[in-house]
């Protein structure tokens, strides 16, 4: 597991998420721990290193 810090696309606060480095491509939805809005997260790992990270709002 790897902790990754990023900015919430709704409230712009810095938050973190734990990512499983053994899963190469991931798409998940997590609620912001500050404003509770849902964030779509897309992640890719290459040889155990984070190669892509995107956090976006779900366009309510």
Automatic annotation (TrEMBL):
Pfam families: Zn_ribbon_21 (PF14255). InterPro entries: zinc_ribbon_bacterial. It comes from Lutimonas vermicola. This is CPXCG motif-containing cysteine-rich protein.
